[in-house]
């Protein structure tokens, strides 16, 4: 059985490309699982895409490098996903972003391939029930007080 937050992460990552929300749900799971490095690496992959999509090249590169370092030692198929493929695609991003000033590369979303039929079934079910965040948050927001003002 897969964690509810992990399933939600995959929906936000693959369907919505909502990398901010990916960070929110997976950080909660990471903290609840004694800081499992696999979840941290996946969280960093989402943060890297969030940064690059928002023109923060340096932040994207830093997060991609960190995610690769965390995830590269795991099996090709880990946590019900094609981990090796994801790591290879992030390595490509590291190469491209390392020389970005001289040779800019275009942004492109990544997709996490699901290989476990049980996980795919859970994601398909969650897909129908998780509403997309429209509009997506593009940066952290402060909580609002009762009067609707930032604290």
Automatic annotation (TrEMBL):
Domain of life: Bacteria
One Pfam family per UniProt: DUF309
Sequence segments annotated as region (Disordered): 132-151
Protein name: DUF309 domain-containing protein
Protein source organism: Paenibacillus ihbetae
